[in-house]
């Protein structure tokens, strides 16, 4: 998604000599916010105010799951998992769990085997729910106040916890949703762990507050550990180091790791002066450059962020965050907003100018319902869920990057007829480009099927003006084999074959 937008912007803006006005190296305090040029409209997911963070994930086929802590949706159930099979246009509630006790911490995780797990902390126990089978595992060795979890490409699950009775961080691994535990260990002297599994391998980055000498802990040094998976459910340490040494409070921290690049993202400061900063590593976390401001407008707090990697083109990092103007009185769409930005691995310090995607004003609460960022890898798209205001009511909304911007117009001439061209390269691994021609304004649907005729991806389903277009298919999360792609428009249908060879 970002690949097409980025390349097209470079071509168009470079041609007019305005490149520097749209993209800023080491973006800090841009006064201009672009309002939704690429994002679709807000979609209602839930009509009631949740407790705590929303968390979500997308499967390889594009099925999206969002987990919300809220007893008002289904009486007697404190966890409700929403599901969408159409990019978030409509949502169902196929699963609910637990009683009336709200999770203190929750995170949804997907492994490379396409299994989806929902980790949550209730009554000092860490639970692991298989979202599709509803099989429930747990970690009960100690009592816990916090944790983080990740999944690997081989199906391994890894949890690092913050125990109530220890200054060390216990570490656990499993290959079956914590029905059983395959490996245990500890990380010395830490608090509030956060992890990220590389999007291009099975190296794990762990961050934690490494000293509890300060009264609030979050002003402590942030230490970083690196682990390498040697077999499913087994990891080994590759060393630790102090990375973030600033002494102001750092209430949020999250690494993002892809293709040898690590963005160590964190908030810094107290209310009235909270910025989002990052430290960059270009050698898989061996060392880091000095801190840089990612979002730091004056008279505004930027916080409540989530960041993930994307894989289109060179790949990179997406981030969404809450921009709070600290106004006195009722907030508006101009004062309080949800913003989106990204950077690619080939220019990792160049974040795009922030785009506002919230039409409903984000609401603040001591419940700390941070937003959820969901990468929809089968289409290269990205979506976001957050709590927004509808009058005085607080509801859960969903928005996503508009899929039509993934399509690149390649000619100005109007074609005489519909044409579907052969993809190139073919065979491919993992990216290939598909071109087609559209002679009139019409609804275009371009779909990919596997050898059994099962739909695996909808690349285009939009009304398009006359012209010639190209779109990218990413086979990163699909197995090698023969696939078919089909173009449908009016009475025109054409299908061609392509081969994914890994």
Offer a concise description of the structure:
By secondary structure, the chain is mainly beta. Helix content is 4%, strand content 51%.
CATH fold-level topology of the domain at 407-500: Immunoglobulin-like
Biggest beta sheet summary: 5 strands, mixed
Mean pLDDT: 87
Instruction: Compute the CA-based radius of gyration.
Output: 23 Å
- Roughly what percent helix? under 10%
Continuous helix count = 2
Taking pLDDT < 50 over at least 5 consecutive residues as the criterion, the unreliable ranges are: 1-37
Structural class: mainly beta
Which word captures the global form?
globular
Let me know the CATH homologous superfamily of the domain at 407-500: Macroglobulin (MG2) domain
Q: Which architecture of the domain at 407-500 would the CATH scheme give at its second level?
A: Sandwich
Report strand order across the widest sheet.
2-28-26-25-24
| Strand element count | 39
* First-residue to last-residue Cα separation: 22 Å
Strand content: over 45%
CATH class term of the domain at 407-500: Mainly Beta
């Amino acid at each position: 998604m970002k690949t097409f937008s980025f390349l097209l912007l470079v071509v168009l803006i470079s041609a007019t000599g305005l490149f520097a006005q749209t993209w800023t190296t080491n973006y800090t305090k841009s006064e201009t916010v672009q309002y939704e040029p690429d994002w679709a409209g807000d979609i209602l997911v839930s009509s009631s105010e949740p407790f705590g963070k929303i968390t979500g994930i997308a499967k390889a086929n594009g099925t999206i799951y969002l987990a919300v802590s809220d007893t008002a949706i289904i009486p007697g159930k404190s966890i409700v998992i929403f599901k969408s099979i159409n990019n978030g246009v409509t949502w169902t509630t196929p699963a609910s769990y637990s009683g009336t006790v709200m999770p203190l911490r929750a995170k949804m995780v997907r492994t490379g085997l396409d299994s989806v797990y929902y980790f949550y902390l209730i009554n000092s126990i860490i639970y692991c729910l298989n979202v599709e089978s509803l099989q429930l595992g747990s970690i009960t060795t100690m009592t816990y106040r916090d944790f983080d979890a990740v999944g690997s490409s081989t199906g391994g699950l890894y949890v690092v916890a913050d125990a109530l009775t220890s200054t060390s961080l216990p570490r656990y691994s499993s290959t079956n949703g914590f029905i059983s535990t395959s490996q245990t260990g500890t990380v010395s002297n830490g608090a509030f762990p956060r992890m990220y599994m590389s999007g291009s391998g099975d190296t794990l980055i762990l961050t934690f507050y490494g000293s509890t000498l300060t009264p609030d802990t979050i002003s402590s040094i942030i230490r970083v550990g690196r682990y390498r998976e040697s077999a499913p459910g087994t990891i080994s340490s590759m060393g630790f180091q102090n990375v973030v040494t600033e002494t102001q409070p750092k209430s949020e921290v999250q690494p993002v790791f892809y293709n040898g690049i690590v963005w160590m993202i964190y908030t810094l400061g107290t209310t009235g002066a909270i910025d989002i900063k990052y430290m960059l590593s270009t050698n898989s976390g061996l060392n880091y450059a000095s801190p840089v401001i990612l979002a730091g407008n004056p008279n505004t707090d930027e916080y409540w962020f989530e960041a993930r990697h994307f894989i289109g083109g060179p790949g990179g990092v997406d981030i969404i965050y809450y921009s709070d103007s600290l106004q006195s009185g009722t907030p508006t769409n101009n004062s309080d907003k949800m913003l989106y930005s990204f950077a690619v691995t080939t220019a990792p310090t160049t974040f795009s100018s922030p785009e506002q995607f919230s039409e409903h004003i984000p609401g603040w609460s001591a419940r700390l319902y941070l937003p959820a960022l969901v990468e929809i890898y089968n289409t290269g798209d990205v979506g976001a869920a957050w709590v927004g205001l509808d009058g005085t009511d607080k509801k859960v909304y969903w928005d996503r990057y508009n899929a039509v911007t993934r399509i690149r117009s390649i000619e100005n001439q109007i074609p005489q007829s519909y044409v579907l061209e052969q993809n190139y390269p073919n065979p491919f691994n993992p990216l290939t480009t598909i071109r087609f021609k559209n002679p009139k304004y019409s609804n275009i649907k371009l779909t990919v099927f596997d050898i059994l005729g099962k739909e695996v991806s909808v690349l285009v389903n939009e009304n398009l003006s006359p012209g010639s277009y190209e779109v990218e298919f990413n086979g990163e999360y699909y197995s090698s084999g023969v696939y078919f792609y089909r173009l449908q428009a009016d009475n025109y249908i054409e299908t061609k074959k392509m081969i994914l060879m890994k």
